[in-house]
Structure formats: structure tokens, C-alpha cells
Amino acid sequence: MDELIALSGELLAEVARARVATENEAHEGQRPLTRVANMHKSLMEARSELVRAHSDLSKLAVRMDIPYQCPKHAMLDGDDVERAVA
């Protein structure tokens, strides 16, 4: 998820740079820039929901006396990231 957030931030920066480089009027390119910004915001909100869900599930496991172990680092391998951004 963090990799997707980072990639969307890079995309947002590239779209903004493209607007500057083309020297078009300010309103041109605003719509795609806004869409990318909204997508980035949605990814941030989704990540927050994942963290809250993880917390809720952990508390539930403790309350129900269910053993669990969370990984220290949750990462996708390169193939998973490529599929996620494709």
C-alpha cells in the first residue's frame, strides 16, 4: 500500500511538472491533476482503514484469546506491486 501511495505521489508531481512545462493556461490540465490528487487521497484513506481494521482484529483476537502474530514488515514482492499498479 505504501508503495502505491509513493507511486501516486510521483504521478501527481509529474502531472504538475507537465502543466508547468507546457506553459498552458492554469485551468488546462486541472481536471487530470485533480483526479490524480483525489486518487492519492483515496489511497491514503484506504491505508488508514487498513490500519484501523488491523487494530480492530488484533483487539478481537486478544479478547477471544486467539493467538496471532503480526509480521514486523508487510511487503509485496515486485510482481505483486506490478500487478497492483497495472
Structural overview:
This protein has 86 residues and is mainly α. It has one domain (2-85). It contains 3 helices and no strands. It has helices at 2-22, 30-63, 78-85.
Characteristic key phrases:
single chain; elongated; mainly alpha; 86 residues; 3 helices
Write a brief caption for the model.
With 86 residues, this protein is mainly α. The protein has helices spanning 2-22, 30-63, 78-85. The model has no long low-confidence stretch (mean pLDDT 86).
Helix-strand sequence: HHH
DSSP helical segment count:
3
Q: DSSP strand (E) fraction?
A: under 5%
Largest sheet data = none
Number of E-type strands: 0
Broad shape: elongated
State the end-to-end CA separation: 14 Å
Ranges with pLDDT <50 over ≥5 residues?
none
- Chain-averaged pLDDT: 86
Topology:
Layout: H1 2-22, H2 30-63, H3 78-85
Helix pairs in contact: 1-2
